[in-house]
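[step 3/7] inverse_fold.run input=structure_tokens len=354
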């Protein structure tokens, strides 16, 4: 099987249900018909073997997260995802791997109404996946990172921290394949691993937030680092902005305590003794962090709290934007540069998002 056979068999879409795709896979370029009075929002995310996933990461989880990471970015912008391209680098053609990967990829794209319209396939020493996702957005609906103001409330659309715990579980599975099977906490460990492998994206929630939020970002590299981008990019205030966070995720604390007592996880003891650090630095959460005025937050809760509950979404108000140029977490002033967040070229191989 060569490159074009691979594309035809696993990725070609002969009939597009979306009439906006005038020309798709098979031509030099795709031809798209954008809606009048709409802007295009674009996101690109890559996944590299031994950096974003390991040798034991399930194939369907790789495809799931590749789509999820891009959908989450579009979600944070307030856009509606529409079209995707996929670049795929493989060391060899593994038909079983490609079958599972492509089936999950198409399933996830269909779930969000996204058409695969093109891409590129090449050979290389390791698996490298890159997706560019495009969507539509009215200019007035675009949320972005740069609108936070003094007095705004900082809200999370879900609790955070479990992705890091799931990562710890997978890292231990690399050393001990029977780690979960032989554990008395089988159910918890499996749940944490699935939370890490198969994140749920809050696209429907973002369509509500856009009418209330001054800024929104998805948590992909840790709350401190991602919220830091919002504060850095918000330049309306006369003085440098700061943040005061106050939170207590009780369910996370219980799960951290269980993992801390597991002797096989002793190498993570330092992290697992600091519940706040787990919550503040956990990457690949893909939970939306939205910043809005107290008035808008109250209005949102009054109008949409019941509907958000049907989506399984609970808004957690975890802090406030200040004019102090300081970061205060649960009463303790921290230096943001001292805290851990994932940065490529500075962290070690395979998922140092802890």
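[step 3/7] decode complete -> sequence:
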């Amino acid at each position: 099987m060569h490159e074009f056979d691979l594309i035809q068999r696993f990725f070609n879409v002969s009939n597009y249900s979306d009439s906006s795709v005038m020309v798709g896979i098979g031509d030099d370029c795709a031809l798209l018909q954008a809606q009048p009075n709409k802007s295009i929002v674009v996101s690109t995310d890559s996944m590299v073997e031994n950096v974003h996933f390991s040798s034991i990461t399930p194939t369907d989880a790789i495809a799931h997260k590749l789509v999820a990471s891009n959908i989450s970015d579009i979600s944070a912008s307030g856009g509606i995802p529409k079209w995707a391209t996929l670049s795929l680098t493989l060391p060899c053609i593994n038909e079983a791997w490609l079958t599972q990967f492509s089936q999950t990829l198409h399933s996830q794209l269909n779930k969000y109404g996204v058409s695969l319209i093109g891409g590129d396939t090449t050979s290389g020493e390791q698996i490298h996946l890159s997706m560019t996702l495009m969507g539509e957005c009215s200019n007035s609906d675009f949320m972005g990172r740069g609108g936070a103001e003094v007095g705004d409330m900082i809200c999370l659309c879900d609790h955070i921290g479990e992705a890091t715990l799931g990562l710890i579980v997978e890292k231990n599975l690399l050393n001990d394949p029977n780690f979960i099977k032989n554990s008395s906490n089988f159910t918890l460990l499996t749940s944490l691993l699935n939370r890490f492998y198969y994140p749920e994206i809050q696209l429907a929630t973002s369509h509500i937030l856009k009418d209330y939020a001054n800024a929104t970002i998805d948590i992909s590299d840790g709350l401190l680092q991602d919220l830091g981008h919002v504060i850095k990019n918000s330049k309306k205030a006369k003085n440098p902005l700061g943040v005061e966070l106050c939170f207590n995720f009780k369910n996370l604390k219980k799960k951290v305590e269980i993992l801390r007592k597991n002797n096989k996880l002793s190498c993570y003891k330092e992290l697992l003794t600091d519940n706040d650090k787990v919550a503040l630095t956990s990457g690949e959460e893909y939970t939306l962090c939205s910043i809005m005025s107290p008035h808008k937050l109250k209005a949102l809760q009054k109008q949409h709290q019941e509907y958000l509950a049907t989506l399984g979404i609970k808004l957690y108000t975890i802090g406030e934007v200040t004019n102090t140029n300081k970061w205060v977490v649960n009463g303790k002033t921290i230096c943001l540069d001292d805290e851990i967040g994932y940065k490529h070229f500075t962290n070690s191989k395979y998922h140092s998002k802890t």
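[step 4/7] annotate
The domain at 3-141 is CATH 3.30.1330.10 (60s Ribosomal Protein L30; Chain: A;).
The CA atoms of residues 153 and 320 lie 5 Å apart.
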